[in-house]
């Protein structure tokens, strides 16, 4: 098992998967990692829909330009903000971001590939119909997960000197 920092620095988005199924115990670990993210007042505003059915995936693939990723993945997890448990939209969306990041890091640690799909939000009403979600559920992302059929591409980040300021912005 990798250390936390090594996992963070080595995680890459994977967009192509083998057909091998994701083990149920790995799915549980991913979901546990998501639910243990911090949230304001510990309100845990997230809901997860686990999708393994290929017919459902075919329907969801019509909701995004990235249909090839959805069709390649043996597992999807739709991540929702539960508006009924929300108390502060900004804080709750931040908590969901933390939840998603926890799940992505868990995937990396389990030697699974994953990618955070956001473009599908443009068709969230259609996704909600397919997944039978009420209007009190706001789609935040869909994660595509599976055994990587590719290695993550090398990535770069801005130099810290471009994004970090001492004491006040601009200094």
Key features?
171 residues; alpha+beta; NADH Oxidase; four-stranded antiparallel β-sheet
Polypeptide structure, described:
This protein has 171 residues and is an alpha+beta fold. The chain has a single domain (4-150), classed as NADH Oxidase (3-Layer(aba) Sandwich), CATH 3.40.109. Helix content is 38%, strand content 17%. It has helices at 4-10, 24-35, 54-61, 67-72, 89-109, 124-130, 160-163, and strands spanning 46-51, 75-82, 113-117, 137-146. Helix 2 runs antiparallel to helix 5. The longest helix is centred in the middle third of the chain and has 21 residues, at 89-109.
CATH architecture: 3-Layer(aba) Sandwich
Strand order of the largest sheet: 1-2-4-3
According to DSSP, the number of beta strands is: 4
Mean pLDDT: 95
- What kind of assembly state do the chains in view correspond to? single chain
Structure summarized in a few sentences:
This protein has 171 residues and is of the alpha+beta class. The chain has seven helices and four strands.
Write the layout of secondary structure elements.
Elements: H1 4-10, H2 24-35, E1 46-51, H3 54-61, H4 67-72, E2 75-82, H5 89-109, E3 113-117, H6 124-130, E4 137-146, H7 160-163
Antiparallel strand pairs: 1-2, 2-4, 3-4
Helix pairs in contact: 2-5
């Amino acid at each position: 098992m990798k250390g936390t920092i090594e996992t963070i620095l080595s995680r890459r988005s994977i967009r192509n998967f083998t057909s091998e199924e994701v083990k149920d115990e790995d799915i549980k670990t991913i979901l546990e990692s998501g639910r243990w993210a911090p949230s304001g007042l510990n309100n845990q505003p997230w809901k997860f829909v686990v999708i393994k059915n290929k017919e459902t995936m075919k329907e969801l693939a019509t909701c995004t330009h990235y249909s090839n990723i959805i069709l390649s993945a043996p597992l999807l997890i739709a991540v929702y903000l539960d508006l009924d448990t929300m108390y502060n939209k900004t804080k709750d969306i931040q908590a969901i971001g933390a939840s998603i990041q926890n799940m992505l890091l868990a995937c990396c640690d389990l030697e699974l590939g994953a990618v955070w799909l956001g473009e599908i939000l443009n068709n969230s009403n259609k996704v909600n119909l397919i997944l039978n979600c009420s209007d009190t559920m706001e789609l935040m992302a869909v994660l595509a997960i599976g055994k990587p059929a590719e290695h993550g591409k090398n990535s770069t980040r801005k130099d810290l000197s471009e994004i970090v300021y001492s004491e006040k912005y601009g200094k």
